[in-house]
């Protein structure tokens, strides 16, 4: 997860227009790929603030200090995120092979998606969703937009589902949740549940692993679903190398919504 840009963008879009905070966010987003070559004095100068103001600012983003902020930014640059080398594969495919070929590929992925759904998994989750006194749905970046869609669709069915856009607020929710809470995670890669987005020994994010809430994971990552703290695993699949999760996660969302409608009708006859 590219947490530096994610947090800066969230703060930028939730702050007062033309405020100092907005100005700092905009400037840091402009120069984030160059932080490895700049001193804190140079960065503060670019942002038109003092070193102490910059240090306080990065702490409000959830970093321990400026060093922590900078190291995260450098790691993310090394992962080729800021340089554009890790752009959406879908866009690259369309550019190279044109839209008509992409649509054919997408059609095959949708077919594979429908064949691969385990409706028993979906029904277990839907039953828990219907019965849970409190429900939240989370994701990161594109997956969070799916979670937001889910929240509003469930509201139309008179079932309250909460979400939080900022990752630190999501983390707090996990920590505060009790056993009556169901937390649904949308994560195509399953990286949400791992520290720094990577699967490694003891790399599970502790707030996910230790929460008292029951946890559902909707993902195409079979390995992530085997984690013992995932109470409701829901797997979806697609065959191509093109990252079509922006469509697949929304399809999965609507499969759950449709099944929930059926279950609700049966229970409320």
Topology:
Elements lengths: L2 H10 L7 H12 L8 H7 L4 H10 L5 H13 L10 H9 L1 H18 L2 H13 L2 E5 L3 H15 L4 E2 L4 H10 L4 E6 L19 H4 L4 E6 L2 H4 L6 E4 L9 H23 L2
Parallel strand pairs: 1-2, 1-3, 3-4, 4-5
Would you write up a description of this structure?
The protein contains 13 helices and five strands. α12 links the parallel β4 (214-219) and β5. 30% of the residues are buried. The protein has two domains: 3-78, Winged helix-like DNA-binding domain superfamily/Winged helix DNA-binding domain (Arc Repressor Mutant, subunit A); 98-267, 3-Layer(aba) Sandwich (Rossmann fold). With 269 residues, it is an alpha/beta fold. The longest helix has 23 residues, at 245-267.
Outline the low-pLDDT stretches.
80-87, 197-202
* Residue share in β-strands: 5-15%
Number of helices: 13
Q: Examine the coordinates and then state which fold CATH places here, giving the name of the CATH topology of the largest domain.
A: Rossmann fold
Distance between the termini: 44 Å
Q: TL;DR?
A:
This protein has helices at 3-12, 20-31, 40-46, 51-60, 66-78, 89-97, 99-116, 119-131, 142-156, 167-176, 206-209, 222-225, 245-267; strands at residues 134-138, 161-162, 181-186, 214-219, 232-235.
Relevant terms:
alpha/beta, Rossmann fold, 2 domains, 13 helices, 55% helix, 9% strand, globular
């Amino acid at each position: 997860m590219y947490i530096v840009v994610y947090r800066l963008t969230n703060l930028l879009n939730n702050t007062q227009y033309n405020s100092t905070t907005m100005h700092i966010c905009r400037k840091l987003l402009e120069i984030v790929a160059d932080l490895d070559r700049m001193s804190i004095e140079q960065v503060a100068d670019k942002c038109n603030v003092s070193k102490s103001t910059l240090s306080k600012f990065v702490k409000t983003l959830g970093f321990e200090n400026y060093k922590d902020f900078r190291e995260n930014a450098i790691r993310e640059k090394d992962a080729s995120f800021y340089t554009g080398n890790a752009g959406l594969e879908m866009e690259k495919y369309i550019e190279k092979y044109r839209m008509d070929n992409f649509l054919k590929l997408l059609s095959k992925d949708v077919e594979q998606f429908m064949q691969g759904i385990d409706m028993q998994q979906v029904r277990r989750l839907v039953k828990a969703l219907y019965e849970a006194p409190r429900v939240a749905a989370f994701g990161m970046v594109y997956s969070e937009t799916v979670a937001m869609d889910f929240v509003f669709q469930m509201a139309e069915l008179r079932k309250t589902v909460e979400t939080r856009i900022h990752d630190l607020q999501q983390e707090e929710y996990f920590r505060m949740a009790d056993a009556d809470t169901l937390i649904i995670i949308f994560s195509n890669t399953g990286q949400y549940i791992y520290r720094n987005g990577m699967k490694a020994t003891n790399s599970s994010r502790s707030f996910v692993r230790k929460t008292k809430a029951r946890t559902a994971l909707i993902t195409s990552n079979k390995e992530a679903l085997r984690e013992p703290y995932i109470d409701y695993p829901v797997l979806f699949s697609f065959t191509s190398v093109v990252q079509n999760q922006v469509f697949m996660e929304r399809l999965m969302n609507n499969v759950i919504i449709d099944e929930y409608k059926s279950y609700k009708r049966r229970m409320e006859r």
